[in-house]
Design a protein that fits this description.
single chain; alpha+beta; 51% helix; diguanylate cyclase
């Protein structure tokens, strides 16, 4: 079968024939129905003549109309598809190279968008800030490279616990951020506690030495009219409350005062 495009005349002729057949059959059908109802007398010869005339009258304008459209279409320049961008020009990934999580810039953009959506549609949204307990002491003992490997291992543990709509990022050094859209504070606290337990139970090691690694979390719910700086400030203060309560804690902030997590308080923050 040839793939050569049809000429405008051939296209118009096919359209006219199709229209003629349609009108011819429709005319016969209508006459038969009217004759059966006793409205008109049925004469086979007259029926064929009348149907043929109607078909011809319908086919002629159809031919002319389609011919004009086909010729106009033929004169249009062929559409050109945009060339695929070479791989080298694609934007770099917005992930942290060490952990594979989103980087600070990416999570900030996502957070601003989520805050806008939450305000517009009045849906709940929560944010959690977390860091590794006593990470500086770990770095001092094992070195920065081993510390980096620990962060990568922790990121893997956290990623396995992440829900599909949620987002996780390495925000700074050993600090992580989690975005929970369409989530109320009580539910976000449960999710953060699941993260905390997953890290605590993970079998992590450094230089052949088994580690008991823990994290502290500060969870806040976004409130109408709150800007990014205010939200991050509350998250930092809530995380500090978890640290002050003895670490390995999840503290929450209801927008008024951080709720005190269970645990022994300590003035030392890591």
């Amino acid at each position: 079968m040839s793939n050569t495009p049809s000429s405008p005349q051939a296209t118009a002729l096919r359209a006219a024939i199709a229209m003629a057949i349609y009108v011819f059959l429709a005319a016969i059908t209508v006459r038969v129905i009217l004759a059966a109802a006793g409205v008109v007398a049925l004469s086979f010869r007259e029926l064929l003549i009348e149907a043929a005339l109607l078909a011809a009258l319908a086919a002629l304008p159809s031919y002319g109309f389609v011919l004009v459209l086909a010729r106009r279409e033929e004169k249009k320049p062929a559409a050109r598809l945009p060339a695929a961008a070479p791989v080298a020009t694609l934007p770099p990934a917005i992930t942290d190279p060490l952990t594979g999580l989103l980087d600070r810039r990416a999570i900030t953009v996502s957070l601003l968008d989520a805050m806008s959506q939450s305000s517009r549609y009045r849906t709940p949204m929560c944010l959690a800030m977390a860091d590794v307990d006593r990470f500086q002491a770990f770095n001092d003992k094992f070195g920065d490279q081993t510390g980096d490997r620990l962060l990568a291992d922790i990121a893997g543990v956290l990623s396995n616990e992440l829900r599909m709509p949620d987002k996780a990022a390495r925000f700074a050094s050993d600090q992580f951020m989690f975005l929970f859209p369409h989530t109320k504070l009580a539910q976000a606290r449960k999710i953060a506690d699941r993260f905390r337990l997953a890290v605590q139970r993970a079998r992590l090691s450094a230089d052949g030495e088994s580690l008991k690694t823990t994290m502290s979390f500060g969870v806040v719910e976004v409130h109408p009219g709150e800007d990014l700086e205010q939200l991050l400030g509350r998250a930092d203060r809530t995380l500090a409350a978890a640290k002050a309560a003895g670490r390995n804690q999840v503290a929450v902030d209801n927008g008024r005062r951080p709720a005190s997590p269970a645990g022994k308080r300590s003035a030392r923050l890591a």
